Amino acid sequence: MIISELHLNNFRNYSHLDLKFHPHLNIFVGQNAQGKTNIAESIYFLALTRSHRTHADRELIAWQQKEMSVSGTILKKNTTVPLEITLTPKGRIAKVNHLKENRLADYIGHLNVIMFAPEDLAIIKGAPSVRRRFIDMEIGQIRPVYLYDLMRYNKTLKERNSYLKFDAAKIDPDFLDVLDDQLVEYGEKVMTHRRQFITSLTEISAELHHHLSHGQEKLSIVYAQNVKTDFAAELKQARDKDKFRSQTSVGPHRDDLQFLINAINVSNFGSQGQQRTTALSVKLAEIELIYQETGEYPVLLLDDVMSELDNQRQLDLLALVIGKTQTFITTTTLDHLQHLPDKMTVFEVAHGEITEQDNHD
């Protein structure tokens, strides 16, 4: 899977930008706050219809503009697929082959991307909500039906929580039973998707981590499922507590992940190096998992992470991805990058202007 060209209109600091990319490696070099990360972000947005950096859509639209658009051409095996996302005051308009998709879930998956940025360490060190978002975004790329099931679950969850805010005397147990049945129906589907994904991710990441740690460490990922045995029974058991707190205390909206190295929780007790290697192992595993699910490698976005890795980790990373994935790297300098391939394009980024420097075929 390759993105051959990208077009931006009023995206961040780019009023208008047209770029053509090398099929193997593209490097964007420039000082901080010049617009390098905005390129990686726009590709991520084109794939997943949202940013990895902000939840505020307004931040994506250029100053004093009302809407923006990101479009590109995707090469998949022998097929060319034009994609376009327009962000308007009324919401998103997603198009595939110039035709509007009625649901974003039908759009997502046409371009698969894996983003690795410094903030991805939060997957290891951050709050459970960060890890749940990670799970949701990655499963959604390879199984669009997951997004539908998750949407229905979240909609029912919101409705149940609103109903729990009623005065206790006004709560109808029969209606609450109906909401619980719906929550269980979609929640069971969400948990099944997650179990399958995490099982596959664990198997692949363990092998990669063993390689990256030169056989010294064994990585395992534990799905810390909030529902222990029977979702319906646990919901009913927690009903009085939920009424008192006016929120649902049981369900996959409280799931988490645990990352263990040699049976020790790396989130709490691992060194910074172990946490970085764990994050790298998980991201590389995602690449292989998407390939297994779709038959094509995703686009890889490495946003300002190469300087965070020592020389050996850089070499390991490049050896594992170059030739497999179309890769985009943003960096402040090429000095720390070791053993780059001959096939690549280097872009210089300064003050929102991008100049192609080298193109090695």
TrEMBL record:
PROSITE patterns in the cross-refs: RECF_1, RECF_2
Keyword Signal assigned: no
A GO term for molecular function: ATP binding
Assigned keywords, A-Z: ATP-binding, Cytoplasm, DNA damage, DNA repair, DNA replication, DNA-binding, Nucleotide-binding, SOS response
Localization annotation: Cytoplasm
Superkingdom in the source lineage: Bacteria
Matching InterPro entries: DNA-binding_RecF, DNA-binding_RecF_CS, P-loop_NTPase, RecF/RecN/SMC_N, RecF_2
Any single Gene Ontology cellular-component annotation: cytoplasm
GO biological process, one term: double-strand break repair
Residues the entry annotates as binding ATP: 30-37
tRNA-binding recorded as keyword: no
Transmembrane portions of the chain: none
Pfam families: SMC_N (PF02463)
Annotated ranges, domain RecF/RecN/SMC N-terminal: 3-352
Stated family: Belongs to the RecF family.
Function of the molecule: The RecF protein is involved in DNA metabolism; it is required for DNA replication and normal SOS inducibility. RecF binds preferentially to single-stranded, linear DNA. It also seems to bind ATP.
NCBIfam families named in the record: recf
Protein name, entry field: DNA replication and repair protein RecF
